[in-house]
Amino acid sequence: MSNWPNLSELLITDAPTVPIGLVGAPLAAGSVTPGRCDLAPRKLRETLRRIGRYDVEVGRSIFTPINDRGDVAVEGLTIEEASKPIRDAVAGSVSDHALTLVAGGNNAVTRPALLGLEMPLDRVGLITLDAHFDMRSLEDGLCNGNPVRALIDDGLPGRNIAQVGLASFANTSAMHRDAIAAGNLVITIEQVRRDGIRAAIERAIDQLSGCDVLVVDCDIDVIDRAQMPGAPGARPGGMHVADFFWAVRRLARVKRTRIIDLTEWDPPLDATDLSALTAARWVAECVAGFDER
Predict the structure, then answer these.
(1) Are 293 and 16 in contact (CB under 8 A)?
(2) H-type helices in 15-123, by residue range?
(3) Which of 211, 9, 27 is nearest to 113 (CA)?
(4) Which residues partner with 185 through β-bridges?
(5) From the DSSP assignment, how many helices (H) and strands (E) are in the chain?
(6) 97 — alpha (psi -120 to 50), left (phi > 0) or beta?
(7) pTM for this entry
(8) Is 7-292 in CATH node 3.40.800.10?
(9) What is the pLDDT of residues 108-156, one digit of tens each?
(10) Burial of 274 (0-12, 13-18, 19+ CB in 10 A)
(11) Per-block mean pLDDT, blocks of 10 residues, the chain (293 long)
(12) Residue 134 φ/ψ region, left for φ over 0, alpha for ψ in the -120 to 50 degree band, beta for the rest
């Protein structure tokens, strides 16, 4: 071990018996705002060496190894074409590991990742940390703006969906109405600010108390744009990055949580290292939460 124990040391390969798996899903096709989210998994791995393993708040280091299962080969594929290989890769990881981290790619990876559980959808709960409802129309096919609507269309009950961090002036009234009509729990970013992130996340967990398994979608554009400039959909007034980290760790601590994804990070948008360090810290919070189970 080096004099600077860091997250990159936790990444290993060909280790199906370790508790955590990492699947890269470098999908950029079908983005409402075209970009290079496909570069995110590689940049994430490169940045892990800059994140230490000692958590000063709890007085211990994170230690659980992560089996890096590599990236799904989705270059040049449409969302429809990429969905099966992503689903299959996540299914393999879920079979081997207690927790699977999915590094996107755009938010379209969330649907095949959840379907990779290969279980009845009425037993699955979805928690999104996202500024957007992701309830765009399916009329023109799949995109990164409609994975939640697509999953409802697949049969995921709305009552099994909790959405945290929804932003004003970033959605439409039709999406809001449809989410409410489906039974989704909707918690806006103003409610998070008013009541605190802890209340919001506990409310989401309680909403899905009847679900056997949880999937957490971390669309990184939920974070305030000033703190996450590498997210094309992020806007001023978003979630404070410290609240985002707290939420990720708390949700990773839940034993029912089997999949956590990170989506919508476009590395070239940020000429600094701020967004990369934020994304890499996401891995640390996932592992820290898992270690507390």
Answers:
(1) no
(2) 40-47, 79-96, 110-115
(3) 27
(4) 162
(5) 9, 11
(6) beta
(7) 0.97
(8) yes
(9) 999 999 999 999 999 999 999 999 999 999 999 999 999 999 999 999 9
(10) middle
(11) 85 95 94 92 97 94 96 96 98 98 97 98 98 95 96 98 97 97 98 98 98 98 97 96 98 98 97 97 98 95
(12) left
Provide the sign of the torsion angle of the four alpha carbons 162, 274, 102, 254, taken in this order.
Answer: negative
Three-state SS for the chain is: CCCCCEHHHHEECCCCCCCEEEEEECCCCCCCCCCCHHHHHHHHHHHHHHCECEECCCCEECCCCEEEEEECCCCCCCHHHHHHHHHHHHHHHHHHCCEEEEEECCHHHHHHHHHCCCCCHHHEEEEEECCCCCCCCCCCCCCCCCHHHHHHHHCCCHHHEEEEEECCCCCCHHHHHHHHHHCCEEEEHHHHHHHCHHHHHHHHHHHCCCCCEEEEEEEHHHECCCCCCCCCCCCCCCECHHHHHHHHHHHHHCCCEEEEEEECCCHHHCCCCHHHHHHHHHHHHHHHHHHCC
pLDDT tens by residue, 255-290: 999 999 999 999 999 999 999 999 999 999 999 999
Q: Which sequence spans correspond to the domains of the chain?
A: 7-292
